[in-house]
Design brief:
nine-stranded mixed beta sheet; alpha/beta; globular; 20 strands; binds ligand LLP; 28% helix; 2 domains; Lyase, Ornithine Decarboxylase, Chain A, domain 1; 12 helices; TIM Barrel
Length: 418
């Protein structure tokens, strides 16, 4: 259930009024609902309970330690793409037998760290990686379990920047290369091919491409098994979309049904790598209006959050609902507004062309759908300290990442500063 509800004239997260919370933690700030996170995790696991499945949370979507700890405690594993994410996941208590390592450019040191942690497998994306992982595993006297990430050339019907299953993208290996790749793997005693993997894109709203991918991957895994490889897993990646405005994403049950239907004939264990669908809607970005100015065309509502805090609107032209934390008077007059940050470029906006009751300076706004790829993509551009992250549980809250200090902005520069 959505825990960001209007109650007694103002929005709450769970039972905590956001106005009150903003007094304690300041703005801008990311606020997450623990209850929603736990509900999403259990709904997902429940949807897949009738088929052997490992759900590995895509750490890149929201990599805060306390969030990860909650997700691992709920029974999920981790999908990661860097040594940084690996060490975060380990610190947060990830079950190493449910960690998969994806990514198109794994580096030697990252592979070494993952081998020594004893992760479940690497999703391999190039012939180069096959040899590299084989060599490092042999040196460490280990056998590395690998999956081949296949690019099925299927259009996920989503934003081009988050489409990953077409030949025009850098991801995965093609089916036609398989014979060579399999020979290469056969010649490496330190490798064990345990599965096939794919991830066709993110914010997927139509299940048809995922269905098609599952069927294609199932057929391919049969061919690979017929060549004598003892496959055990089929990894269908992440990608389930969420509602940001008026989208109608498939339910998690429909999503599970679509994948399981494709994979079931193989009997292989299913791996999924959900990110956004678990955490997207558990978080909002709280921001305060600095000033409002009128131009011949519109009003600009200048707020204290900016593209460094939330880059999705300008990077993907993505839509995030923005509302006042306080209920507006019914039938209040509206104005055409752009909600913009203080950063010195026109691309710095959180919302454009919004017909809304005109906010006033000092007003508290919330930007919804910011749990996934919000804080995890934040930067310090314009020397703006990154915003804190707050986890709300009932009427309690915990600061799970402190606001960065100004000193921390240049701390790593003092070493060479003369
Ligand atoms: N597995 C792999 C191999 C991935 O590359 C991704 C996301 C996921 C799983 C998780 O996908 P999800 O369930 O979250 O859709 N920054 C963009 C999204 C980038 C997604 C990158 N890969 C955004 O803000 O929309």
């Amino acid at each position: 259930m959505d825990q960001f509800q209007l109650r007694d004239g103002s929005y709450h997260c769970d039972s905590l009024p956001l106005n009150e919370l903003s007094q304690s933690v300041g703005t801008p700030a990311y606020i997450y609902s623990k209850k929603m996170l736990e509900e999403h995790c259990s709904a997902l696991l429940d949807a897949f309970k009738n088929y052997p499945t490992d759900a590995c949370f895509a750490v890149k979507s929201l990599s805060n330690l306390s969030i990860l700890k909650t997700i691992f405690a709920a029974g999920l594993g981790a999908d990661l793409v860097s040594a940084g994410e690996l060490q975060r996941a380990l610190l947060a208590g990830a079950p190493t037998n449910r960690i998969v390592f994806s990514g198109v450019g794994k580096q030697e040191d990252e592979v070494r760290q993952a081998l020594s942690a004893g992760i479940l497998m690497f999703n391999v994306e190039s012939p180069f990686e096959i040899d590299m992982i084989a060599g490092l595993a042999a040196t460490a006297n280990k056998t590395a379990a690998i999956s081949l990430r296949i690019n099925p050339n299927i259009d996920a019907q989503t934003n081009a920047k988050i489409t990953t299953g077409l030949y025009s993208t850098k991801f995965g290996l093609t089916e036609t290369d398989l014979p060579d790749l399999l020979n290469r793997i056969r010649s490496q005693p330190s490798l064990q091919l345990v599965g096939l993997a794919c991830h066709i894109g993110s914010q997927i709203l139509d299940l048809a491409p995922l269905r098609e991918a599952a069927q294609q991957m199932a057929a391919l895994s049969t061919s690979v098994r017929n060549l004598g490889f003892d496959l055990r897993y089929l990894n269908m990646g992440g990608g389930l979309g969420i509602r940001y405005s008026n989208e109608e994403p498939p339910s998690v049950m429909e999503y599970a049904e679509a994948l399981i239907q494709g994979v079931r004939p193989t009997g292989l264990r299913l791996i999924i790598e959900p990110g956004r669908s678990l955490v997207g809607n558990i978080g909002v970005l709280l921001t305060r209006v600095i000033s409002v100015k009128k131009t011949p065309e519109r009003h600009f509502v200048v707020v204290d959050a900016a593209m460094n805090d939330l880059i999705r609107p300008t990077l993907y032209e993505s839509y995030h609902t923005i509302t006042s934390v306080n209920a507006t008077v019914p039938n209040a007059p509206t104005a055409l507004c752009d909600i913009v940050g203080p950063i010195c470029e026109s691309g710095d906006f959180l919302g454009k062309d919004r017909q809304m009751p005109l906010p006033v300076a000092g007003e508290l706004l919330m930007v919804r759908g910011c749990g996934a790829y919000g804080s995890s993509m934040a930067s310090q551009y314009n020397s703006r300290p990154r915003a804190p992250e707050i986890l709300v549980d009932g009427a309690q809250f915990r600061i799970i990442r402190q606001r960065e200090t100004l000193e921390s902005l240049w701390a790593n520069e003092l070493h060479g500063f003369r």
